[in-house]
Design a protein that fits this description.
Helix content of chain A: 25-40%
Number of strands of chain A: 17
Structural class of chain A: alpha/beta
CATH class of the largest domain in chain A: Alpha Beta
Oligomer: homodimer
Largest interface: A-B, 59 and 59 residues
Radius of gyration of chain A: 24 Å
CATH superfamily of the largest domain in chain A: Dihydrodipicolinate Reductase, domain 2
Number of helices of chain A: 14
CATH architecture of the largest domain in chain A: 2-Layer Sandwich
Distance between the termini of chain A: 52 Å
Chain lengths: 430, 430
């Protein structure tokens, strides 16, 4: 049974993602109508540069006044693909106030102000969906908050940034250094002119905050996420990783900690075994591992960015939100009932791979081992190489807290026989 | 805001899956209540053998009268984990008639009577959810019918039976024959005493029917699915596969055909390149590739069977259905508006790997090549080996229809110089 009055959609932003959303809404209009139960109509498109020619979009729909568009009062769903904090936040708030539901792809905003946005949606009885904010087309938000709603998620471990995965994969497969691999990523359009948000881990940290919040039914904000970028990963680190049967990935890791009494969320480069499914995630692809009590290990894999894949996620949400509008219901809102606190990075327990430049003389290993022991960090393996009075020690530890490891490293730096700490890398996925 | 009157759940079946559902409903009662917005209560458990001791289940809830349980009138959700066609079908129909929604894990029933069950659910304004029917804990039904609702799915390619994947993986990694690998699977509990449903592909075919129906918004029944088991896969086939840089998997493949005018669904063993992500799916794990217009390639991976993983999928559905009950809405029902017909296997286009035992004399290759050409099947590569008057020819074709290939093989068998067709295997995933 098809309703004939169309649902009206306002599109905020018409860049790489927005233009794909508009295109699919037009080319797949019949399918969308069948799947929603009513036709869905693009009622307005807010852009910054109205003069730009947008193929397939009626010029009369284009406006520079996004505020007026969301306040029109006849809009059923606002699709926000502008990105950034403002004006997106104010526009979304206005959308709820004027009766619209919202589909957003805005990871930065969700990670910073998710709770307030959810509260506004609930206050006005509207939906806030944002599958596209994490890992592009990969269904992740919906499986976490619906498919696994009867399970207890213990860990989310993923590659959620395609740019950095492209760079690290290139370094791994060609032996290139960071700068060389970044230059290639930029030339191919995988990295932006200013790659800071990607390579320093800000983008992945926002996604980690969103995933941790949903997975653990608690509030986790961007500021709660420990973040280390991958600009200091070297070809030597990849050589060390290979020696251990590992590769290096920039991982977002969200875990229950402290016997379930708290959670941790962090983004940093880490060694993972080549046998781990995440190790074979190539190029700009994303993949996320989810470990739960009952379902065990699940993995979700796919393109983590790009106009069409992100638009697919937006449109899946649009269909759900439109169906909810028609039935007068709302989908799952924020679920933060568990209220678990976020533990600091010092409490995180994992394994470490540490490379030290040391003096090539007897007794150094004993000195170093003593420092580890004094800080309660148990050593798994040590490899010692040396020539011409210079030597290096590679230590791989058993599981230890980040705080203990930091204390160990600080003490090591004070040893006369330790000339430098060449690298410290966490080892995950074992 | 929490409602205090509990939602009542009737559990039909208390075997491997049902007992896990009951256990998690008890141990995670608080979490489930928070996520649903009301407590959820086990109101009755229908079993065949009431005398069996069931840990953690109040004996007063146990009954052998499943019919009376679903007809009580106060049941909000019936969870059906009996399996098989009857009495499950009659009980589900009675559940809808008496006002309950249904969560089912019953792939055989859904593949055979999905349309009628969906119609009954819709008639009574209730939900029919069945995430657990396909690939255990892996979220697949929900992503296909919700996350990808704004996209156009073109192909679903998956390993959806853990038993056969365990056997094939064992054959691949150890060089064992089929019977030896099956015996090990049986000893480890991965195969049932009568493994027919798994090894002959019936289980996978039911899942293929369900996936094809949802992916293509059309009705696909078990009978529409072409099915070949994997009992005739030999160690020699694995050796051939390795020569091609491939392995062998039992695949469920659902595709659009005929320029989108129809669909095909099939289950058979196939060679896939080692570089394909499905090639590295080990043991009893399942994984499903979904290819769509906008989102590109997605993969979903996880445990495809087992009590706890399947229970996780059931409980995810239970939470969704309970939420719908509270809001007075229903989730997405059957979507068969596209009404695409199912094409016969002869229309399927793919590549083939054919091993022939031939006479070791000049001119045989020319004869064989002529037969391929006469049937319009283009040859990609031929490898010829021979000694002592016996020889074998391994032909890999370009893409051709199954009908053309069948005609080719029939004609080859009639050649005097062809002593036998040792194996025919499709090549997928390229």
């Amino acid at each position: 049974m098809m309703r004939t009055r169309p649902l009206k959609v306002a599109l905020l932003g018409c860049g790489v993602v927005g233009s794909e959303v508009a295109r699919i809404m037009t080319t797949h209009a019949d399918d969308l109508a069948q799947r929603i139960g009513a036709p869905v109509e693009l009622a307005g498109v807010a852009v910054r540069r109205p003069s730009k020619i947008r193929e397939g979009i009626d010029p009369e729909l284009v406006t520079t006044d996004a505020t007026a568009l969301v306040k029109r009062g006849d809009i059923d769903v606002v699709v926000e693909v502008i990105g950034g904090i403002e004006p997106a936040r104010t526009l979304i708030a206005a959308a709820f106030e004027h009766g619209a539901s919202v589909v957003s792809a805005n990871k930065a905003l969700l990670a910073q102000d998710g709770a307030a946005l959810h509260a506004a949606a609930e206050q006005h009885g509207r939906d806030l969906y944002y599958e596209a904010a994490v890992a592009g087309a990969i269904p992740l938000i919906r499986p976490l908050r619906e498919s696994l709603a009867g399970d207890k998620v213990n860990r989310v471990l993923g590659i959620v940034n395609g740019t950095t995965n492209f760079i690290l994969d290139k370094m791994d497969s060609t032996g290139a250094g960071y700068q060389e691999a970044l230059d290639e990523a930029t030339a191919l359009g995988y990295a932006e002119a200013d790659p800071t948000a990607d390579v320093e881990g800000f983008d992945a940290a926002a996604k980690a905050a969103i995933l941790a919040g949903i997975a653990f039914h608690s509030r986790v904000r961007l500021d709660d996420v420990y973040r280390e970028g991958m600009t200091e990963v070297t070809a030597a680190d990849f050589a060390s990783a290979k020696n251990m049967g590992c590769t290096i990935k920039l991982l977002a890791i969200c875990e229950r900690a402290d016997h379930g009494g708290s959670v941790t969320a962090r983004v940093h480069p880490a060694m993972i075994p080549l046998t781990h499914p995440l190790a074979s995630v190539r190029g700009a692809y994303n993949a996320v591992f989810v470990e739960s009590d009952a379902s065990g290990q699940l993995m979700f894999y796919g393109p983590g960015a790009g106009g069409a894949p992100t638009a697919s996620a937006v449109l899946g949400d649009l269909v759900a939100v439109c169906r909810n509008r028609l039935s007068g219901a709302t989908g799952p809102g924020e679920s933060a009932y568990a209220g678990l606190p976020v533990s600091p990075m010092g409490d995180v327990v994992t394994r470490y791979h540490i490379s030290l430049d040391v003096a090539d003389k007897p007794g150094v290993l004993a000195q170093v081992a003593t420092v580890f022991a004094e800080h309660g960090v148990s050593i798994d393996t040590v490899r010692q190489t040396g020539k011409d009075g210079e030597a290096s020690l590679v230590v791989v530890t058993h599981r230890a807290s980040d705080a203990s490891l930091s204390g160990t490293v600080e003490a090591l730096r004070k040893l006369d026989t330790v000339r430098g700490v060449a690298s410290i890398m966490r080892v995950e996925g074992e």
